[in-house]
Amino acid sequence: MPEGDTVWLAGRRMHEALSGRPLTRSEFRVPRYATVDLVGRPVLEVVSRGKHLLTRIDGDLTLHSHFRMDGSWRLFRVGQRWTGGPGHTIRVVLANADWTAVGYRLPVVDLIPTSDEAQVVGHLGPDLLGPDWDPHVALANLRGRPDEQIGVALLDQRNLAGLGNIYRCEVCFLSGVSPWTRVRDVPDLERLVELSHKLLWVNRDRPEQSTTGDLRRDRSTWVAGRTRRPCRRCGTPIRMVEQGTAPQQRVTYWCPHCQPLFGEQ
Fold it and tell me: What is the CATH class of 135-254?
């Protein structure tokens, strides 16, 4: 699942390519919008909000998209071959005189009035990479659910927006707490929130993600994706199991030695 920094980077690149220029092509391969034609309308801006992408278009229109598990937006020079996937996976095409933005495998595509954006992103907590980021609000949101397991609470976008599965596993490891520790029992919740912001911030300008400081293959994470391999700190085999309740279950990675379970369960 794409993390908030992936969506932020996609939004920045789309903004640079599309904003301030009229569309020369708009194609929605979504039945409910099949007849929509945005040609001639300028794109005003493209911004991310957590894991949501908002493409604002002249005339009080916003194209709202969400990547979910494997969606993406790809940019191509006009005339360049599209290489983001099979044609049947394309959901939206937006183009101007120089660039074409192609949305692949997007499970969420909505065209709404810009004035109604709160209907799709108003429930989100402060955005880790947004101008509204406020660690105090994020802390208050987390503390408002004291009985929640911290590994579940970090993925709840109502608490803080933008953190995905890889980062929440890494944040818990770097904070030295089991993902099954209740929010009320996390020894230093402030540091955990600070680390969440720091990890996304340092990775926001590049497609590669690293929590270890090493971008080399198989060196970029502490626990995520490393089932049964030795912990980089203590050598204990990394464990993996699903956490949460369906349909929100996510695979969780952790080191049982470096990440003790605090409090009563």
Answer: mainly alpha
